[in-house]
Amino acid sequence: xxxxxxxxxxxxxxxxxxxxxxxxxxxxxxxxxxxxxxxxxxxxxxxxxxxxxxxxxxxxxxxxxxxxxxxxxxxxxxxxxxxxxxxxxxxxxxxxxxxxxxxxxxxxxxxxxxxxxxxxxxxxxxxxxxxxxxxxxxxxxxxxxxxxxxxxxxxxxxxxxxxxxxxxxxxxxxxxxxxxxx
Length: 182
Ligand SMILES: [Zn+2]
Description:
Oligomer: single chain
Strand order of the largest sheet: 3-5-4
Bound molecules: zinc ion
Structural class: alpha+beta
């Protein structure tokens, strides 16, 4: 825990208030917020363990899986997955009430696998520069890397790359795109 030589202003990851970080690792403004974060991490770990147990019970050769199984395997929330199913972005078959099945092969295209590594992320949240001069538009990306627009959108969603819409254009940080396709 190195003491910072100068004061760093950060936003508390729990309450969002700005504070002066005592060390480079400080992420919370107060002991109270640190405690809240600790409780959340514990709850998260418990939830993750349950999801991991679900994934362990799914046969590798079964393609059509249930929504809870999909949420366990892939890094997507139940609410978002239902949304994608309802708007048709993720194909599904409906065998009856509460019997929706989705294809693992399809899900694979959209979402990264859930990470069951319980270690808290060491990296502090990345700061993105979403000013247009530091971004590509979707059109520029597809031209530069010869990939069609919908595949670019798919990758942006899959890898959680931030975007910003100004008028008719969607801007994506150059750094993330070059990193992805180079
Ligand atoms: Zn706080």
